[in-house]
Amino acid sequence: MAGRVTLAARTPMADKDKKDKDSSSGSIAQNRRARHDYFIDERYEAGLALKGWEVKALRAGRLQLNEGYVMMKGDEAWLLGSHISPLNSASTHVIADPTRTRKLLLKRRELDHLVGAVERKGYALVPLSMYWKDGRAKLEIGLARGKKQHDKRESEKDRDWQRDKARMMRVRNR
User: Fold this and answer.
1) Residue ranges of domains in the chain
2) Predicted TM-score of the model (pTM)
3) pLDDT tens per residue across span 2-12
4) 47 forms bridges with which residues in the sheet?
């Protein structure tokens, strides 16, 4: 009997718990346009003050960050322009505003640093991605500088060259 391994019986409930845990982790939406239009210098993780119907819509993946931006009002950060489409079944008793302004939850030190960078140095705050972390929705925001047209062309050429180089290496290694 030494060295014998016994397998624990898998119950349907254990499989269900695992599936629920997997669906609550990972990415909700990406803002690829931000990486194309801006140089991202620093990244911050912020929580969001959301309503119940918004959380349900996020779990269904109904978020668009492409038009969104972050604005500093006073000593607070706000997410504007992002679109969370409400679920028909989740928001029957409330009037859902898909583009409402949502408060970002950051530490005081981070907020002070962001206010200084935006107001004095001319940086922009852009939402980069939204994801689940420990069952809570988190927004990754970037402190960004705008790209000029020639910078965009240069990064596109570099991306094309990397792709061609990888293709040549694959052909060579055959």
Assistant:
1) 26-147
2) 0.69
3) 554 444 444 34
4) 105, 138
